[in-house]
Write a structure and sequence with these properties.
The chain is of the alpha/beta class. It contains 10 helices and 12 strands. It is an enzyme of class 2 (transferase).
């Protein structure tokens, strides 16, 4: 069975961050190991309170994973929110150890490192400490196999102003890492993402809802990562991820759910049927 190490937030009462991603990975047959960087009773957006996992505890949790000889079995590393700069350093150290570990008995010959550089968003700007943002930019991003930033985060990572899809593709090329960029400019009344690889740029979109639960970016990252672990080509993994988001949003509206109903959806996340529009960006990959 594939194994995923998720380094991100844990929220008890709401489905966001790592606490959402662990449930999303399960129907794909991927065993999730969540090491929380911060713990909240409810989403901060909904007034929830909590605190960061202190550095000593975070290190002990990571040592516990390594002590069970799991590093050589990790097929997917997902990094998300970090509260403290020391957590970022420890995450980088863990990634190096995972890549150096013997892969005997592992599902895949090498692990995939998927970095969701959670730094902030429009219009609020940064919502992590500046030193966390600096280390994510300088230390963590270079270790990624794939990135899943939103537009604000891509702009922060590259120092570029991004106005349209062509700007997104150029910024990703400047980073030198393939990316699935969420909250991409995909047209009036639509929401979606832009997949950028060295050979192509694809816009994927679905109808935008007036109101939607939080956590769609976390859902995209988890489903996209699951596809990469399965061996899907990036465009197919991205398409399924966007279909899963559209499916979850439609279900949340139909069921009047306050959060993305990922547990109830289960296998529907693996085989989503929601419609997604796919457009190839002119000049993509050139």
């Amino acid at each position: 069975m594939p194994l995923a190490l998720v380094l991100s937030s844990y929220v008890v009462a709401n489905r966001i961050g790592g606490s959402l991603q662990q449930y999303v990975l399960a129907p794909f047959g991927i065993d999730p190991v969540l090491v929380p960087t911060v713990m909240f009773g409810a989403s901060p957006v909904k007034g929830g309170r909590g605190q960061a996992t202190d550095v000593e505890l975070f290190q002990m949790l990571l040592e516990g994973v390594r002590g069970q000889e799991l590093h050589g079995l990790v097929d997917l590393v997902i990094t998300g929110h970090f509260s403290l700069p020391e957590q970022v350093e420890l995450a980088c150290e863990a990634i190096d150890q995972i890549r150096a570990a013997s892969r005997t008995g592992a599902f895949n010959p090498r692990p995939i490192v998927l970095v969701d550089p959670i730094l902030g968003d429009h219009p609020k700007g940064l919502y992590v400490k500046p030193e966390v943002a600096r280390l994510v930019t300088e230390r963590l991003t270079p270790l990624a196999d794939w990135l899943t930033p939103n537009l604000f985060e891509l702009s922060h990572l590259t120092g570029r102003t991004i106005a349209d899809a062509a700007d997104v593709a150029d910024a990703v090329k400047a980073l030198g890492k393939p990316a699935l960029v969420t909250s991409a400019p995909v047209g009036e009344g639509r929401a979606g993402a832009l997949l950028c690889t060295p050979t192509e740029s694809l816009l994927l979109s679905h109808p935008r809802l007036d109101q939607a639960p939080n956590g769609t970016g976390d859902l995209v990252t988890a489903v996209f990562g699951a596809g990469l672990v399965e061996g899907l080509e990036a465009p197919l993994a991205a398409e399924r991820a966007l279909r899963a988001v559209a499916e979850a949003l439609e279900a949340a509206r139909a069921w009047n759910a306050p959060d993305l109903p990922v547990v109830a959806l289960g296998e529907r996340l693996v085989r989503p049927t929601a419609s997604v529009r796919i457009e190839r960006l002119a000049g993509g990959g050139s």
